[in-house]
Amino acid sequence: MIAQTIPGYEKIGEIDETKAEFTIDGRIFHKPEFATPTGKAQMFVTPIPKLTLPSLDEFGLPSTTKGIVLVLGTGRSYAQHNTVVYKQGDYYRGMPHRNCILMNAMDARSANFHEHQRVTVLGNVGKLEQVEIIYGQIRQGSALMFYPEVNVIFSAPIDDRCGTPAFKRVPVAIYH
After folding, report:
1. Which of 65, 109, 126, 168 could cross-link to 61 by cystine, CB 3.0-4.6 Å?
2. Where is each Molybdopterin dinucleotide-binding domain found (predicted)?
3. Gap between the Cα atoms of 127 and 53, Å rounded
4. What is the pLDDT at residue 82?
5. Per-residue pLDDT tens digits for 4-21
């Protein structure tokens, strides 16, 4: 059906018989010529949006709360295929179990946290408690937790154009 529907994919219709790899027609450019009136590529600048994070009080926490707001990305462990978990830890990232948050050490210290401390991670619809902080190679201002477990704490906004949930940039409050 793909071969009959999508221009350039005709060769996929015979791949079971031929076993031949193929490229999609018209996708590889050997000369810098494009199908435009000038023959040149048409480029445009996409402005980078100014992204901000909410404050701890915007999460409804008391002003006396000690913590930090970070951008949470969700990810799989190395021993996970989609939502099937084969091992509890992720040895590549040094995360010993699935109830932990990978943080940059400087972020943790700025909030007076220490490695292996247990904290609460609050999203826009729920929280996980007793989450262990693990220091790791992650960009300052960001953190990582495993899905699907962490998905219960937030309702990710859906992009208007593509319909994809924003599971890679979710603000969370981390506090004790």
Report:
1. 65
2. 70-171
3. 18
4. 64
5. 998 888 888 999 999 988
